[in-house]
Sequence to fold (286 residues):
Amino acid sequence: MSQPTGSTRLAAVIGDPVRHSLSPLLHNTAFAALDLDWVYVALEVGAGHTAEALEAMRTLGIAGLSVTMPHKEAAAAACDELSPDAAALRAVNCVVNDGGRLIGHNTDGDGFIAAIDAELGFDPRGRRCVVLGAGGAARSIGLALARSGASQIAVINRTAERAQQAAELFGEVALVVSGGPEASVIAESDLIVNATSVGMSTSATDGEAAEFPFDLELIGNHHTVVDIVYRPLLTPLLAHAQARGARTANGVAMLTHQAAIAFTLWTGQAAPIEAMTAAVSASLVD
Ligand code: ATR
Fold:
């Protein structure tokens, strides 16, 4: 497919800011790899205009929509139907236009599970997990870990009240660790996920690791450590974890796999993960 034609199908991301989104690269790479007559663009839509954007999706016949900050919650309210994850999280990151009926999904959690499987061969079943953060990303990851059979999900967050709210979503396996987290919970865990923005846009040598809410010396070679941040590729947390012999993954795989799930929801086809990963990795070289 070289040029868009009269029958080209349109997908897009709405957000603000959106100009640095990697979603156009991921999806256009995938469309090209499978020779699909689709095109994906970034649309800057300000806060407060989510419902109008979704109405425009119907009017314009946009087939698939990615939803990012600040629209995820409002999109959940504006869709006609929600997937179980989107309903539980009250947040939508992917909309399917089914003949004018808008179906909201949240592919972050499944994307995370697929990413740690593909990248690290990690199966959460029966494993003890620590989730740092309680925002949208942390909630989608914790919910997916709980559904995948994790035996414990310890939530650590700067704001204790939000940690409590997130834990309620995860059910019986959740444990809130606030105000001086117990060292044993960290030391005895299998998986540590940083789902906060701490460490973003700083190099691994900036010493920002001091901001982490537990002693990084507790990380050992039995740990799997995942940082959902991908700018930089090597965050302070991952650098420390690698130095201590832990297995690590950055946010590239989660980004790619959540997009791959959206791609399949829109097109009905398996996503070309390798081509997508290669494209996004090349664009993120530090
Ligand atoms: P997202 O939807 O991307 O997860 P969010 O809802 O704003 O974004 O959540 C950001 C997370 O990073 C929160 O857990 C936030 O902690 P609070 O709930 O206390 O706000 C966490 N976070 C952001 N900056 C932080 C910092 N400097 N130190 C500790 N936690 C931080």
